[in-house]
TrEMBL record:
PROSITE patterns: AA_TRANSFER_CLASS_3. This is Aspartate aminotransferase family protein. InterPro entries: Aminotrans_3, Aminotrans_3_PPA_site, PyrdxlP-dep_Trfase, PyrdxlP-dep_Trfase_major, PyrdxlP-dep_Trfase_small. GO terms for molecular function: transaminase activity.
């Protein structure tokens, strides 16, 4: 314990104050393997939180690919190299054929930054619409969109926020097509407002799974009317796939495919390199070439051979170990387990999600759906004490965030569920 306090003090001295740290009793991790993590005292944790080690912590094939390429060559992209070409070919093959080119970056924030400028290059406008409970990254440009970490000095006049969709408390009070129409009407209002402004309308940027917003179980084709409105107005649809991408939802490789929409630009990050910093932007060649012509973009580290080797190994493992199918199977099993717990614990108001991105919204009473945000914090800390790492998120910060590495098994789900049962029972 004294050691932990010294580490915290050193951290604050060297890295500054207000740097976020999970849990009342922070975890000091020293090792990872598959879905497991170990702390400095040798305690083992089941990782139900981390989506970056997508194919499992320290997957040997990814480690081997990184080591092999790092000991051969690592340079920027101003030389000819097959690595980036082999990767982009494999990556774009997983998209609709209109999305056939890519720019590689190091982070999801950079990818969204590029996507906004692509929309600007194509439309000549800068007005952007995002949801009012989103996060798209940390650059000056994209932090303008993110209501979860509002920018100092407020939002630029070019940003309009629409309500984050919440199927548990649907806009207008009704579900189904009425909910979709009500949301599309909000998007249309925002488009009109931007068209009347000096900025004009360039793009709607959304995570098609609305992960940070609380991963609502949206009605089928929910996004279709809003996307149609964007197209009518000559804007681009940007899908931020940093969270739902790479098969996490189980049903589809990409969140926009699950949502039944065809975006103009897709942005990628977190799981792409299994922890190696790789991000990217996928678009059709016309859009990408308009961007390159307007902005002459270069990224020193983006697309380097080591990053591409890591990212290619992730696609190989995903495919060979059938991890998308595993996400579908284990996710459905675990959600059913949460439903079963809901019969016992009135605190669980709503169980939702898809594949290995799911959770329960905790409420003080089911009729009023009053968010149990503080209790959610206690639950997350209680889970950590018992060796299961998860988080919380959503508009009311009362939904458990369960988003483990993709090799998560039914046995792992059972351990998570029995621990949660124990923690909820002990409240
Ligand atoms: N988009 C979404 C949806 C995210 O959740 C995040 C990170 N949490 C980002 C973009 C930013 O990615 P990065 O931290 O790699 O810049």
């Amino acid at each position: 314990m004294a050691g932990e306090e010294a580490l915290r003090a050193r951290r604050e001295k060297l890295l500054g104050r207000n740097m976020s740290l999970f849990y009342e009793d922070p975890v000091h991790l020293v090792k990872g393997e598959g879905v497991w993590l170990w702390d400095a005292d040798g305690k083992k944790y089941l990782d139900c939180y981390n989506n970056v080690p997508h194919v499992g912590h320290c997957h040997p094939r990814v480690v081997e690919a990184i080591c092999r390429q790092a000991s051969t060559l690592n340079t920027h992209t101003r030389y000819l190299h097959e690595g980036i070409l082999d990767y982009v070919e494999r990556l774009t093959a997983t998209f609709d054929e209109s999305l056939d080119t890519a720019i590689l970056t190091c982070t999801g924030s950079e990818a969204n930054d590029v996507a906004l400028r692509m929309a600007q290059a194509v439309t000549g406008k800068t007005g952007v619409i995002a949801t009012d409970f989103t996060y798209h990254g940390n650059t000056t440009a994209v932090s303008q969109l993110s209501t979860r970490m509002p920018p100092v000095g407020g939002y630029g006049g070019h940003v309009r926020h629409v309500p984050a969709p919440d199927a548990y408390r649907p806009l207008g009070g009704e579900g189904g097509a009425a909910f979709a129409a009500a949301w599309a009407a909000k998007v249309e209002e925002a488009i009109a407002s931007l068209q009347e402004s000096p900025f004009g309308f360039s793009a709607l940027i959304i995570d098609p799974f609305f992960a940070n917003e609380g991963f609502p179980d949206l009605p089928e084709n929910f996004l279709v009317p809003a996307v149609a409105a964007v197209r009518r107005a000559g804007g681009l649809v940007i899908c931020d796939e940093v969270q739902p991408g790479f098969g996490r939802t189980g049903t589809h490789m990409w969140g926009h495919q699950k949502a039944g929409i065809a975006p103009d630009v897709v942005t990628l990050g977190k799981p792409m390199g299994n922890g190696h910093p790789v991000g990217g932007v996928v678009a059709n060649s016309e859009t990408l070439n308009a961007f390159r012509k307007a902005f002459r973009y270069f990224n020193t580290f983006g697309g380097n051979p080591v990053s591409c080797a890591a990212a290619l190994a992730v696609l190989d493992v995903l495919e060979d170990e059938k991890l998308q199918a595993n996400a579908l199977d284990v996710g459905a099993y675990a959600r059913q387990g949460l439903q079963n717990l809901a019969e016992k614990h009135a605190l669980i108001g709503n169980v939702r999600g898809s594949g290995l991105f799911f959770g329960a919204e905790l409420v003080l009473d089911r009729a009023e759906k009053t968010p149990a945000s503080d209790i959610a914090t206690r639950v997350i800390n209680g889970m950590r004490e018992r060796g299961v790492l998860m988080g919380k998120l959503g508009i009311h910060q009362n939904a458990t965030k369960i988003r483990p590495p993709m090799p998560f098994s039914k046995d792992n789900a059972d351990l998570m569920l029995s621990t949660l049962d124990d923690v909820l029972g002990g409240l």
